[in-house]
Design a protein that fits this description.
2 copies of one chain form a homodimer. By secondary structure, the first copy, chain A, is an alpha/beta fold. In chain A, 43% of the residues lie in helices and 18% in strands. The interface between A and B is large, with 110 and 109 residues.
Chain lengths: 426, 426
Amino acid sequence: MSKQKPAIPKGTRDFGPVEMGKRNFLLNTIRGTFQKFGYMPLETPSMENLSVLTGKYGDEGDQLLYKIVNSGDFLKKTTSEDYAQGAASMLPKIAEKGLRYDLTVPFARYVVMNRHELNLPFKRFQMQPVWRADRPQKGRYREFLQCDADVVGTSSLLCEAEIVMMINETFEKLGIKNFSIHLNHRKVLSGITQVIGAKGKETAFCVAIDKIDKIGKEGVENELRNNDFSEDAIQQLQPLLTLEGDNNQKLIALKSLLNSSEIGKTGIEELEQVMQMVNGFGLQAHHVVYDLTLARGLSYYTGAIFEVKIDNTGVGSVSGGGRYDDLTGVFGLPDLTGVGFSFGVDRLYDAMEALGLFPESSQAVTTVLLCPFDETAMFHALPILGKLREADIPSELFPEPAKMKKQLNYANKKAIPFVIIIGSEE
Amino acid sequence: MSKQKPAIPKGTRDFGPVEMGKRNFLLNTIRGTFQKFGYMPLETPSMENLSVLTGKYGDEGDQLLYKIVNSGDFLKKTTSEDYAQGAASMLPKIAEKGLRYDLTVPFARYVVMNRHELNLPFKRFQMQPVWRADRPQKGRYREFLQCDADVVGTSSLLCEAEIVMMINETFEKLGIKNFSIHLNHRKVLSGITQVIGAKGKETAFCVAIDKIDKIGKEGVENELRNNDFSEDAIQQLQPLLTLEGDNNQKLIALKSLLNSSEIGKTGIEELEQVMQMVNGFGLQAHHVVYDLTLARGLSYYTGAIFEVKIDNTGVGSVSGGGRYDDLTGVFGLPDLTGVGFSFGVDRLYDAMEALGLFPESSQAVTTVLLCPFDETAMFHALPILGKLREADIPSELFPEPAKMKKQLNYANKKAIPFVIIIGSEE
């Protein structure tokens, strides 16, 4: 067998002990919050049938799905005409399965397959890798972890309020102090397009306004013009594009603008109710900011939408979500409402690093290292080692009576806080 | 979009909240043991380059690897001659990546890529899914979890002894009382083929003797005959094939047989040293059984080998491993010795179920459910809910003032032990 210099695929990563320690600190904190709020764990297979995945993420998403070559003679369903026609004709005949692209579609599939056994409202969390054949770049990987929590089967706004609570709790436990939970409502956005006479153009409006942080007010106006919004409409939007003040002042301005829109008023009412509930928990600081520029790309959101940003880290949104009206319609179970959100683990990790928030202890595994002077000392060490572990103290015996410098160096590199040197005389 | 009845790929599984609770109990116990013994977590990508995976698992293994279709125009490196020649010619040109088949090869790759930074001896554990395009059957899945622990960079027999300790500790925490850790040594097996005049036939001997539980003594003898072992050789084996008694009696019989074999004597000495160390820990019962019929299939083992069986469950081996001399030679780093073992999670799960050992609490997530009588009661419940969670008590508020029967039914199905009914008068 030829010797080879091994490598890992572009856009993928090994997580060694140090990174794992930090990631586990992060993931255990998130998991702890989900469970404290009554969310239950779910795991779905890495592979899904392509019939389940295809068409759910738009054309671009379909391109980015990883497809798995059928087992055995994978060409057997193809013809030389298929081959002559190229990849698009061949693909459906050589690949039936693909890798999970997100956790939402597998969750929807699970809900439909188990609808008769589910205890509604069903609260689940899921922390699993997903795969996208995207061009790798800083902070964007081809395999990355998603952490989703969703509750389906209830339209209660308590769920939205609890998402605010879960974000607060998680960030508090992580030690992140300066962050904001941006909150908006799809019905508010619909109301706005209605009152400015651009009904039916919600998507173009949302896409444009979503970019205001990146391209500025003028950029948004230009994009709206390019999408045939009238100058009059853009004029009416001015108070919104420059909305200042606290949440109450923003609501007052919004209410006055949306006075003639039923859907817009519903959106405002729901936002107010969510905040009432958040306040009802008796939280000191909720970090919620009404943000009318928040639209979120995914077209399936229909109610409140969220996005979380951490100050002074240069890291983008680290969490987001919203309410949807029809999670499972595409699988034949219509009108199932729910609300969900997810944490972006890679970005949160980067933010935690930038802020120096990972506890040193997150890396340590072993508490005590026993260092034997010689072969006989190793046998003296065994019962001590047994006793330490009986007391649930993670401990190791250096497996050879090596030079003490080597042994201490091992302890040092592994960040083991306590060392016991064992002689053979005792 | 057409409505479809969704399904999951054959040989894969969803793990709902109940299974997840039990699996997490199992996995947390295993992880706890690994960490207590100083093993550190590692995770590698699900996808590896096929150049890393191919040729490591034999021809059958290569067939069972899941391959991933290259992104974009995956046919661009192929020609119509390739197509005419069939799947074997096409495959290397349309797929560069495959899914992890086990955790050993990725670990070897990781060690080689990080050899200059590793703190030797390097103790790592890894708990991740692997994928095999095998024919699904009871207890055999196409995606399943492996839990491996390995230490590389030391030939100390302490590592072998600690594997015995880790198995004991894990099973004790799981509540499994009746099990045996079968122990043998590749050098003992080599010594035996030497003294019976069948040197060089270790593999055929191991393959035959490994089946003694399934095909019996006569079956093994026939298989040896079919592999050109002489009647004289088979005659000399008789005392071994019918070896009875405790570990000491077996050692005495072995020593007498292997008196003329240096390699065989080394094997026996090492087994004795491992047992001395195990006893040095002061363990009450070590569950170790010398088992000369244990061979283990994998050809890379060179020293002690292990396998664990649970009594009265009908489940096969639930754990196994051994020492190897050359983990990373195929990647250009020769002579790295190590020892490792793994737990078979699916079989352990089945055994735990058969023995009724999963604690009831492993399923429960929520401790308290608050049940509101009406809309106003929901608001009364909020500060109570906040206080419960502040005290780290997993709690929920039923999100709607639904009929009490419905709410209690929810608590019941979710196995929530405490319910607090909230009226609006208080």
